[in-house]
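[Automated response] Your request has been received and processed.

Submitted sequence:
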Amino acid sequence: MNSRRRVNFSIVIRRVVAMRIPLLAAALFFVAGSCLPVPAQRCLEYGPTVSLMGRLHSRIFPGPPNYQSIRRGDRKETALLLTLAQNICTTGNDPQGIDVPETGVSEVQLAITNSAHWKVVRRLTGKRAIVMGTLFHAHTGHHRTRVLIDVANIRAAG
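Generated structure:
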């Protein structure tokens, strides 16, 4: 009788282990999958045309002569900005060191050279917009974000 109990106990243990193996395997795959690195964000290049989406707005900054304080006599400068729906990063291989890589860019300043775009900008200020153009890095005191976009086209975001 003693041997029969051992056999039954042994069968029970095998069945319990057999039922837990798939559960343990699933848990292991879940843990292993969550430890894998997230694919790297594809950074944008300076130069080629890109499309960015975000909320268009303006902000006043201190301008010349010192770019520090409007209260202390600096002129007001209004910058047109696009707060991005998703942060971007940029790659840079500029031998002159101007267009350098950036990460975590959440806002870009718009550089508008086509006077026809101003009508669209006035209509879309405070709203979501899609801006197409070429990126460039800040290089003067008038540039208020690390990365700017030379606007080729601007339209309302659907």
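Summary generated for your ticket: Helices lie at 2-34, 117-124. The CA atoms of residues 3 and 9 lie 10 Å apart.
If you did not submit this request, please reply to this message.
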